[in-house]
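Hi L.,

You mentioned the student needs an example of a multi-chain input paired with its predicted structure. This one should do, with 550 residues in total across all chains.
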Amino acid sequence: MKLPLSLTNPNMASGSGSLMWFRKGLRIHDNPALEYASRGSTCVYPLFVIDPHYMEPDPNAFSPGSTRAGINRIRFLLESLADLDSSLKKLGSRLLVLKGEPGEVLIRCLNEWDVKKLCFEYDTDPYYQALDKKVKNYASAAGIEVFSPVSHTLFNPADIIEKNGGRPPLTYQSFLKLAGEPLWASSPLSVELSSIPPVGDVGSCEILQVPTLKELGYVEEYQDEFTPFRGGESEGLRRLRETLCDKEWVANFEKPKGDPSAYIKPATTVLSPYLKFGCLSSRYFYQCLQDVYKNAKRHSSPPVSLVGQLLWRDFFYTVAFGTPNFDKMKGNKICKQIPWNDDDKLLAAWREARTGFPWIDAIMVQLRKWGWMHHLARHSVACFLTRGDLFVHWEKGRDVFERLLIDSDWAINNGNWLWLSCSSFFYQYNRIYSPISFGRKYDPNGNYIRHFLPILKDIPKEYIYEPWTAPLSVQTKAKCIIGRDYPKPVVSHETASKECKKKMGEAYAVNQRLNGAVSEEDLRNLRRKFAEGDEEQQPKPRRLRQKLIN
DNA sequence: GTTGCGTTGCGACG
DNA sequence: CGTCGCAACGCAAC
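Structure written out for the whole complex:
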């Protein structure tokens, strides 16, 4: 589609055009790349490339969505793009949407369009590191200036790593010390942009509108509940302003004190998806929080305060950037080598919300339907899957979160799975969240469970966290027979958690003895040892035992 | 080598 | 609601 003449630049031949490449950073406010692209340019091409792998339906995925993302996050992204387009239009521009492999599309655009400057936000994720290198090399060789500022995080991860002698800090406290105050802490950020130069001639490129889910090929889903969180900068800023209204709450926020079972009004800001896509600038958020603190009698501090949460985000970005194979166990220097089991049945039960533990299953339903759940709820299910009960590999759980969360962020998601599985950062594997009592402590009546698992809605509160203990008469009356209408628990928490602790202890001992250089064979030996331990507890029939030995 | 500390465990007790 | 014992990890500072 050709653009209307009014949006093309008549002085193209003699002009200096800029290409503003949006990826994350889907915002107008505090966007240094966009600002630089606009300054002194006769035309600006604001571009977003739709990568079919990320956006188009994959019928083989375990949930509705593409190969890489669940439908809730795709929807959030489309809403963010539509909002960005509408904001750009108010400034005399528009969003140019193209489809294809992003690197190839970019290079075609650089070739065809009048571009002297290529501007995009710097990104530390491995995917973008590889992609950007390719694009940067091409642009430089073509004599195009590349401007790629750090504006997604408070600090430049590379600076922190350099300050620490080339290694990323591995504790939050050491990160805080290195980081200090950000340089821009008390200087004004560019929050308003009054206009953007018009879009230049797009030649033969086929420019699309921001597509709808339907246009991407998604049929109307049977899902009865979608994420209640709408994407976009406007919505992110609205949510921020709404949060900031309650100054008392903002000033005294303490993360661990939040209620994971609160879903009508979540106990946290739910700004994470906006930060993830850069609909909200973390730096602007930081400055708003400092403003509130300045005028408050007292306020909380990192790590538990709201500013502390932004610093956690930077902490994980920094460690992730400075750690090769951060998203894997093998080849990851900071990750304990643990012989996780490979039980796809247990994984599926967890993923499909049929572990038989209502607290765990309700959280997994909320994840599926909303793409968001409270931080402590994430802890509960992550601990349960890995070191707490099922002893399934954290990478498997990470994959499920990465797909389904609307706020899933490569560095933070991997960092938290390393944390919760006691593979890195946190090592007190005795501290296990109980799938029964942890939720009950916040929500004794089980309202959260009743909402997300309506099959259990008439189970009396005495049994709602462990319905398999309810007498059959109670189950009948509640129209929910355990084992028929709702599953029996996949494990006994008491014995499973005890086993997990023992396994973690033995795995830790091997890691210590070999100073982290644990081989494939060492892991196999541990697995064999664990299997023998299992047999002692529950002797298998001789036939089966023979089979195991062979 | 020792000590103190670490965003968010559980259960008992007051 | 807070404190304690439980059992006990690795990292960082000394």
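You could point out the following to them. The first strand of chain A starts at residue 17 and ends at 22. Residues 170-171, 173-174, 422, 425-431, 501, 504-505, 508, 512 of chain A lie near DNA strand C (CB under 10 Å from a C1').

Best wishes,
N.
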